[in-house]
Amino acid sequence: MFKKSEVLKALDAAFRKEFSNGLAHIEPQYKKLAMTIGSNTKVNTYGFLSAFPQMQEWVGKRTIKAMQAQGFSIENKKFEATVGVPRTDIEDDQVGLFRPMMAQMGQSASELPDQLIFALLKTGETTLCYDGQAFFDTDHPFYTDVEGKTAGTPQVNITTGTDADAPAWYVFDDKNVIKPLIFQERTKPEFEAKFDPSKSDTVFMEDQYLWGSRYRCAAGFGFWQLAHKAKKTKLNTANLMKVLEKMTTLKADGGAYLNIRPSVLLVPPSLEHTARELVQADQINGTSNVLKGRLEVMVSPYIVE
């Protein structure tokens, strides 16, 4: 039976440490906007999202907010990264060249949720959420009574302007326990190795040892009320204030305000300077900046459309 040599054992331990270091090397952004939901099956179904918890006066019996029949499901996907290390490089003690690659593999696994979460936003106008409407929509159902019987004016979480060249930008409320997006994690990032030439054609035929990572997870939409998209809309004080007003005046079924607290402005790299000036500068065009400190700026290339 094939047994790893002491050199390979030590090398495997070193590579695993590098992978672990890479996992911890950066702080991902997605945690501010997405709730991490553990998964123990192929597909998770989210019917509970229709029951946005809202306190109200208790008169008579409790008013039970029933879950809607629609809901939606998120199916886990598999992701991998693999590095082949030539056997001759191990024999010639050149393994130091591959340590950064193993650390980078770990960092890539740590960054994957950011990639999935932010890229997901580009599909928000066509992907349905728990209420049966697209996540970013002008027609989210609203009911004037708490039992969901009397329909009111639909609510909106997307602003569409007339500036075709304006990149899309987003505003989120990240102050709630529940988040606008979902990162579903079926397994933690795993690190695996292939050494045995009797079990691996790559080792036997190509004289390479293999190290690889595996991650099983997915991203999906949570509460639309906590997110707003602006497209074909120039990012300026007036337009940003309009979006903030729309978000803070959203209501729950029954008519009570949801008390949305817009807190994050997410922009593509092309709008970073504008965004930071809007919410960080003391003055704009010689006038006191009323939005200073109002929002945190986040930047992601994954939202570029």
Key features?
305 residues; alpha+beta; Major capsid protein gp5 fold; 14 strands; globular
Task: Write down the Rg.
Answer: 24 Å
- Report the principal-axis shape: globular
> How many DSSP E strands?
14
Order of helices and strands: HEEEEHHEEEEHEEHEHEEE
* Sheet with most strands: 5 strands, mixed
- The proportion of residues in beta strands is 15-25%
Stretches where pLDDT falls below 50 for ≥5 residues? none
CATH H level, superfamily name = Major capsid protein gp5
Please tell me the CATH architecture by its name.
Answer: 2-Layer Sandwich
User: What's the rounded overall pLDDT mean?
Assistant: 87
How far apart lie the N and C ends? 54 Å
Q: What structural class is derived from the secondary structure elements?
A: alpha+beta
Number of domains: 1
Question: What is the share of helical residues?
Answer: 10-25%
In short:
The protein has 305 residues and is of the alpha+beta class.
Structure description:
This protein is an alpha+beta fold and 305 residues long. The chain has one domain (6-47, 67-303): Major capsid protein gp5 (Major capsid protein gp5 fold, 2-Layer Sandwich). The chain contains six helices and 14 strands. The strands form four sheets. Strands 1, 4, 7, 8 and 9 form a five-stranded mixed sheet that branches. A five-stranded mixed sheet has the order 5-10-6-11-14, with helices on one face. A two-stranded antiparallel sheet has the order 2-3. The model has no long low-confidence stretch (mean pLDDT 87).
